[in-house]
Structures are given as structure tokens and as C-alpha cells.
Amino acid sequence: MTQRFILLYSLFLTLFWGMAQTDVSVKRTLKLMGSRFEITVVAPNEDIGYINIDEAISEIKRVEKLISSWDENSQTAQINKNAGIRPVQVSGELFSLIERSIRISEITDGAFDITYASLDKVWQFDGSMTRFPSTAEIQNSIAKIGYQKIVLNPNKQTVFLPKPGMKIGFGAIGKGYAADKAKELLVSKQVKAGIINASGDLTTWGTKADGGNWMVGISNPLNREKVFSWLPVVESSVATSGNYEKYIVFNEKKYAHIIDPRTGYPTSGMSSVSIFAKRVELCDALATAVFVMGRDTGLHMINQLDGVEAVIVDDENKIHKSTGIVFEKNQ
Ligand code: ADP
Ligand code: MG
């Protein structure tokens, strides 16, 4: 009898404790990969939440070490340094990232291309450019661009850039990849929910501490402070490429920091592109690609891809969307 009472009592205590323990949302904002990252987790208490966030940060730093082109010791820098010289053996992780990048180039007809990077000295979007580059400079760089030129050897896991001066860069996919990896790590550690937001390229899992869906606001193109519409992001991701942060103006025309690898010139004609899909790596890369492809070609491609949607704002501030997007609340 007493034993049964104790059993019931402890069962009651467990249930009560379980109900009384409410999850909390813990958030940290910091600079990683040269961008502002905001990491939010839903955890049983603050301490656990901060530990989880630290784990995510270490993972993002690890990815940065692998893919950064300016860190001389990174595998990516080694590939670039050995362009035209010899193949470089890399980790399986970097090898598959390059393979996936090439696949995205194929889907986007070369609008997304990690070999765009030989142009990164020709165009600078930090305000330091004083003249428009010459046609010769651009032609010279274009000759080194082309994802088809990358030589991959899956057996030896080597990457070879055959032309001297050829270069790869993960500027349009790296933040997304890092956010996916951070999420993957936290999910594997049973963190029940969260959001990894890399300057607007974000991925979510679970629900908010109050049970609600994670939502993203699409800015009103005429007033960036105002949200035009809210869209739920459930167990999925969104990334945005825009021309309002990094751009140059020449002859009163605004050029985004996204380059058309086929012409060697920065793109114009779009204000922002947001892509919705399961993984933020794909969203990140496709947002850049659609920016290059332009409204019609871009939307046409997105409408053919399963599980991928897009919201585009053109340079006349008109909003266009792919077939699966439904705006819930207009303002
Ligand atoms: P943001 O960094 O603002 O999120 P994106 O994800 O669109 O913007 O990435 C733009 C960056 O990607 C550029 O700064 C450059 O490093 C690189 N990049 C530019 N054009 C291309 C391209 N056509 N294909 C692949 N990478 C590109
Ligand atoms: Mg991108």
C-alpha cells in the first residue's frame, strides 16, 4: 500500500514538474562570417539555451574556416592558390559543397556560379571604386569564369581549377550552408526548436516557445520599416538577396553586388528576391541566381522546382510571386 502511494506520488510529482516547466526562448546576436547572425533556441532554461547557442556558434566558425577565401589556410584558399598548377585534395564536406554548387549552376544556366570570384577584384562594392572597369579587364576575368571548367576527381577527392587566376568563392551560398549546418547540429542534440538567421537568410525548426509558427516579414518595398506581408516558415528556410545593402551607382544607375557570370557585369533591374525552400543553402544560392536571371526567367525556373517558392520585388517596387505563395495579411 505504502509503496503504491509512493509510486503514485512520484508519478504525480513528475507530471506536475513536467507541466510547470515552461520552455524559454534564448537569443544571441553576433558577427560571424562578416555578417550579423541571430541565433534563437527554445530550451528548458536560459543556461541550456546559451550552451546550445555556443555549440551553434562553434559550428558556424568551423564552416567559415573551411570555405573562407580570405583565410589563407582554408581549403578553399588552397584550391584558389593552386589554380593552373595542381589539383588540391579537400575534405568530403567541401567536395560535396562544390558538387552541389555546380548542380545549382546547371539548374540556373550558370546564373549562379562559384567561379564568378575571379571578378571580385574588378568590382568592389565597399565604396572604394572610383571608375567603371574597362571592357578588357572584364573580358580578361570572364575567360576564367565557368563552373564547367572545374575539374573534380571523386576518387581522389581533389578539386582543380585549370586556368591560372581562376577562383571560387562561396559568398552566395556559404551563409546558407553554415546556417543549415548549425541547425543540423542543434537538432542532433535534441534542441526542440529554433531559428538560425544569417542576415536575413534563415532556417527554422519546431515552433516558438509559445507554440506559434516562426514567421518572416516581407518588407514593403516602398518603406523598408513596414512589413508588406507575413509568411510562416515551418521546418524550412528563406533567403533574400537585395540591392539595398551593397551596391554601386554609376551614371545614376544602381548595380547590385551580384554579378552575371556570363557578362561579367553586376545586375540591375531587381530590388530584392526572397526564396523559400527546405534548406537555406539552396534558398541562398537561388536568391542570387534569380537576381541574375531576372523576373520572368527567374520565376519560370522557380515554378518548375518542387518545394521552392519566390517573392520578387522589381526595381519599380512591384511585387511578383511564384505560384505557391499565398499572402496572408496585406497591409
Ligand atoms: P548577400 O550576401 O547580401 O546575402 P547573396 O547571397 O546574393 O547576397 O550573395 C552575394 C555574394 O555572392 C556577392 O557578394 C559575391 O560574393 C557572390 N556572388 C556575386 N555574384 C555571384 C554569382 N552570380 N554566383 C555566385 N556567387 C556570386
Ligand atoms: Mg545568396
Please give a structural write-up.
α2 (46-67) packs across α6, α6 packs antiparallel against α7 (280-293) and α7 runs antiparallel to α8 (295-304). The radius of gyration is 23 Å and the shape is globular. The chain has helices at 2-20, 46-67, 75-81, 92-107, 135-142, 174-188, 280-293, 295-304, and strands at residues 24-32, 35-43, 88-89, 151-153, 158-160, 193-198, 201-205, 215-220, 223-232, 237-242, 247-250, 253-256, 270-277, 309-314, 319-321. The protein contains eight helices and 15 strands. With 331 residues, the protein is of the alpha+beta class. It has an eight-stranded antiparallel beta sheet with strand order 1-2-6-7-10-13-14-15. Magnesium ion (MG) binds next to β10 and α7.
Gyration radius (Cα, Å) is 23 Å
- Ligand inventory: adenosine-5'-diphosphate, magnesium ion
Low-confidence stretches: none
Helix content: 25-40%
Number of helices: 8
Number of strands: 15
**End-to-end span in angstroms?**
65 Å
Described by strand count, sense and barrel closure, the largest sheet is: 8 strands, antiparallel
Secondary-structure blueprint:
Blueprint: H1 2-20, E1 24-32, E2 35-43, H2 46-67, H3 75-81, E3 88-89, H4 92-107, H5 135-142, E4 151-153, E5 158-160, H6 174-188, E6 193-198, E7 201-205, E8 215-220, E9 223-232, E10 237-242, E11 247-250, E12 253-256, E13 270-277, H7 280-293, H8 295-304, E14 309-314, E15 319-321
Antiparallel strand pairs: 1-2, 2-6, 3-5, 4-5, 6-7, 7-10, 8-9, 10-13, 11-12, 13-14, 14-15
Helix pairs in contact: 2-6, 6-7, 7-8
